[in-house]
Design brief:
Layout lengths: L1 H24 L5 E3 L18 E5 L12 E5 L5 E9 L3 H16 L3 E5 L10 E12 L5 E10 L5 E11 L6 H25 L14
Helix pairs in contact: 2-3
């Protein structure tokens, strides 16, 4: 009888210990963040007939940034990863989205679209952005550096530039890092918008009219 009672008690205690261990080892939930575009308030209303179409290509980012966790830099070139702060979308896609929304706000006379483009979509100017840095630095600031180019409708390079924007030391924690990155990306977007304004207006092909 005693042997039977022990046989029942041992698995029960083991199960209780296992459940208790799971409860004790349960980690805190990860927080999720996304980049924010420029506020649309105060910008001019877009034209009904845009003067050109700007396409933002897929944005490339280094492998140490292209991960679900939000990363930053520490002294000595060390990369710091926050396992409990994650991006709500792939970081390259988030930068593409924010740059496109910023350009739409800064260039209300243009229509801005993002790749992949519809086969029937005519693109006057393509913006190609390659991010080389977007992270909080050891001094608390957030640095965004990029190489970017504007391409013509046939893929020809119209201009190539480099941009570097730093948001001053932000609030501690991942929320401050994300806010700083959004601020620095706004500076990058302004560089691109200024360059697009300075380029000659896209040439429009006129359809031939059949005459009897």
């Amino acid at each position: 009888m005693r042997t039977r009672a022990l046989a029942v008690l041992v698995p029960t205690l083991a199960a209780a210990a296992l459940l208790g261990g799971c409860v004790l080892k349960q980690s805190k939930p990860a927080r999720t963040y996304v980049l924010d575009p420029l506020a649309a308030a105060g910008t001019a209303a877009p034209r009904e007939t845009p003067s050109g179409v700007v396409g933002v290509l897929k944005v490339t980012v280094p492998g140490w940034i292209d991960r679900p966790q939000i990363t930053g830099r520490a002294a000595g070139g060390q990369i710091v990863t926050d396992e409990f702060a994650r991006w709500g979308e792939p970081i390259g896609r988030g930068i593409q989205r924010v740059v496109a929304e910023n350009l739409a706000a800064l260039l209300p006379d243009r229509r801005v679209v993002t790749a992949p483009f519809a086969p029937s979509q005519a693109i006057d100017q393509r913006v190609d952005v390659g991010i080389t840095e977007t992270a909080r630095q050891a001094d608390g600031s957030v640095l965004v550096e990029a190489r970017w180019a504007v391409l013509g409708p046939k893929g020809e390079t119209l201009l190539q530039r480099r941009s570097s924007h730093r948001a001053s030391p932000t609030a501690a924690g991942p929320a401050g890092a994300v806010a700083g990155a959004s601020e620095a990306l706004a500076g990058l977007s302004r560089d691109i918008a200024d360059a697009l304004r300075a380029l000659p207006a896209p040439a429009r092909e006129e359809k031939a009219i059949d005459r009897p």
